[in-house]
Amino acid sequence: MKKYIAKRLLQLIPILLGITLLSFALMHSASGDAVDILEANRGGVLSEEAKAKAREELGLDKPFLEQYAVWMKQVLTGDMGKSYVSGKPVFSTFVHKLPATIALTIASVLVTILLSVPLGVLAAVKQNRFLDYLIRFLSFIGNSLPNFFVSLLLIYFFALKLGWFPVMGNAQGWKSIILPTLTLAIAMASKYTRQVRASVLEELNKEYVTGARARGVREGRILYFSVLKSSMLTIVTLLALSIGSLLGGTAIVESIFMWDGVGKMAVDAITMRDYPVIQAYVIWMAVIYVAVNLITDILYHYLDPRIRLGQEGAA
Amino acid sequence: MKRRLTAVLICTVLAAGILAGCGNSEDKKGEDEKQGTTAQDGEKVFNYGTTAYGVEMGNTGLNPHDNYSGWSAVRYGVGETLFKFTEHMELEPWLAESYEQVDEYTVKITLKDNIMFTSGRKLDGQAVKECLEDLVAVHDRAPGDLKIKEITADGLTVTITSEEKVPALLNYLSDPYGAIIDMEYGVTEDKNVAGTGPFIAEHVSDTEISLRKNPEYWGGEVKMDSVNVKEIIDGDTLTMALQSGEIDAAQGLPYASLPLFQENESYKVSSVNTSRVFFAQLNYDTPALQDDRVRKAIAMGIDKEGFTAGLLGGNGTPASGIFPSNFSFGNESVKAPEYNPEEGKKLLEEAGYTDTDGDGYADKGGEPLVIRWLTYPGRQELPLLAESAQATLKEMGIKVEVNNTANQQDFLDKGEWDIYASAFVTAPTGDPEYFFTTHCLKDSAKNRGKYYNEELEALETQLHGEFDPAKRGELAVKMQQILLDDGGFIFASHLKMSFAMKANVTGFEAHPSDYYEITANLDYE
């Protein structure tokens, strides 16, 4: 197992090299650089000398590969550089924004699980009955609505009309996180409810369930100790992907709720051609996906005895 | 029975939700939240949401010597400049008491005697000298504008000598980058500074600034105890934050939201015309546009009244020239072609463009008159202007192909455009020369259409050496008229900037310079 983990972590090196080079190349192929964009955004004019000086200071006058090499050298010495736009160290900016993103990720994943697992099981157990239809209908609606629309609806009803939660920001503690969490969880829970339902139905039709029933095992015990555990493999895979994507931030939700996370930071950086911030974000995303996939694989070992035993047998 | 019970339960929950949603917000929210001050422990707190603060604006932090952060220092009452602009964009002393133009290269400024920095240091000539020396050493635009050779200080006076004649030196010093800060105090890690303004920043981040009143403010009593400036990017969030009472005033509301506050007695709106103009440059490389009559016909085909009243919902003012009406050399001082499609059509016919094949578009020698209209989506007004021009020019038989792209620079570089519409702040320091030098001269950086007029070049040389503001204004009028007569530029509208606020907010007015927002007079009735 340790060997396996070490191997996966080693694979991270070529992945990081590849995607940082690719993102660097893609950003350089876009028109304009940070100096141009800042000038355009302000609606003013910088003299060519001032622009040349700014480019020289940022190293933007150097050839593409040289810029990449300089950046890579800095990163290897633990320096992620400074933002071209704000002038602040990239690492500290990133670390400052990360807790908000992590908090929102944890909250929305928890709410997603709390909503989708019971509803999915209920829909499967009550297959083709009123409750099943209702849950499927609601999950269809939840899946169809885009995030920005759900967030505006939630703000309208719960902040503006009822006054239960703040419209934006994170100044009011737990109350502040409810609406952004619900925005993300509604879409995810709608998707997962259908997955849980399908997965539970598949398990319910298997022979071990028929056998258990024939032996007089209670329905609840079959459901919670056998069926649900087996269904979890599918859910874990999906959740892993969602967690990866959530940890990368959710720019639209962050912008609407003014939730100061890494998603909005990344979109701003792309718009402003702020290469050091974009590169830091790319590294973060690569590490997240490798780490989350690794954790998922490890979870498989514990959830599915076939994988665990198969590997031990082969060894 | 159990099924029915479940169904009833679900229906009850849904109905409750719907009723709650449809209920009048007045039922749920106290009158004080809608109308009253945002008071905590008896203190007056002003929460202000704005789209104009943030990383993409390049104005985060309060250090005036960094990028556009001086705008934040001045807007939010932390920094003050030596001179400031009146509502007519004329200069008046601020930190300065008076000035004397010693010769064409030297100006001597006398400072007011009773001013302290929030750090506790007294404002004197030496403090101003230190600040301006740092400004020209580190800022990107200031050295090119000010062209300072030497600064000397003596008590309450500071004497600035320029390398060359800079008639608009005092205007440039009134740009927010000229906010005077205490360089001995310096700039903190979070980009905070010690200024002379009515407020002291307690917390500065890329998205928010918290301010407390300066109890020792030289300009009199500061009426608001504290102010929180918050960046809010999304227009709908900004709207609902003001409606819910989370903020007391908003800048940058979408045009569609403004009527919610204009037609509601719980709120009021302060609007002003700014020098941000939405205008079109015509490409002299395009053969059809080399004909004076075609350019004039196009100018006659732009319905500025219809555009501002209809598509902008009254949130813009039709432009004749470069500058809005509140400037002495503004809209009323020049004459632009009026919207007149019939007359425009005649001009096109004179130029040889008629609809020979009956397709509704004019053509000449078998070639239809097609205009590639390039613009970008970054300003909500520009795509609307393109749509408006497309519709009205079609009536005259001109086919407009709109290219609305964020990659406009690529198309400009390749020359794949005939008309380029953009937005520009034409007189950020109240002086008229800036727009001409940046857009209209042979060597101007933004003269994208390769416009050239010898008389205009000569007048610019005259303007560059003229110190008398009145004569500068007269020259600016002449130069604008040349631009309009040549038809190389079409000025469509000036931006009307609006602040929406709770009805009991006072001392919070939109200013044509866009520099002054939070002042000592900000208060609640």
Automatic annotation (TrEMBL), chain A:
* Residues passing through the membrane, by range: 102-125, 137-159, 233-258, 278-300
Query: CDD domains per the record?
Result: TM_PBP2
Q: Name one GO molecular function term.
A: nickel cation transmembrane transporter activity
- PROSITE patterns recorded: ABC_TM1
Q: Which InterPro entries match?
A: BPD_transp_1_N (IPR045621), MetI-like (IPR000515), MetI-like_sf (IPR035906), Opp2B (IPR050045)
Q: Which UniProt keywords apply?
A: Cell membrane, Ion transport, Membrane, Nickel, Nickel transport, Transmembrane, Transmembrane helix, Transport
Localization, UniProt: Cell membrane
Listed Gene3D superfamilies: MetI-like
The chain positions of domain ABC transmembrane type-1 read 98-296
Query: Which GO cellular component terms, listed alphabetically, does the Swiss-Prot or TrEMBL entry include?
Result: plasma membrane
Membrane topology reported for the UniProt record? Multi-pass membrane protein
Q: What is annotated about its quaternary structure and interactions? A: The complex is composed of two ATP-binding proteins (NikD and NikE), two transmembrane proteins (NikB and NikC) and a solute-binding protein (NikA).
> Which family does the similarity line name?
Belongs to the binding-protein-dependent transport system permease family. OppBC subfamily.
Database matches in PANTHER family: DIPEPTIDE TRANSPORT SYSTEM PERMEASE PROTEIN DPPB-RELATED
Q: What's the protein name? A: Nickel import system permease protein NikB
What is the source species? Lactonifactor longoviformis DSM 17459
Automatic annotation (TrEMBL), chain B:
Span of the secretion signal?
1-20
**UniProt keyword Signal, yes or no:** yes
InterPro entries with a match to the protein in the record: Peptide/Ni-bd (IPR030678), SBP_5 (IPR039424), SBP_5_dom (IPR000914)
Give the CDD domains listed for this entry. Answer: PBP2_NikA_DppA_OppA_like_3
Which cellular component terms (GO) are annotated to the entry?
ATP-binding cassette (ABC) transporter complex; periplasmic space
- GO terms, molecular function: peptide transmembrane transporter activity
Q: Quick one: a GO biological-process term for this protein?
A: peptide transport
A Pfam family recorded for this sequence = SBP_bac_5
Q: Which UniProt keywords apply?
A: Signal
- Report the domain of life of the source organism: Bacteria
Residues of the Solute-binding protein family domain: 90-442
- Its protein name is Peptide/nickel transport system substrate-binding protein
Where does this protein come from, organism-wise? Lactonifactor longoviformis DSM 17459
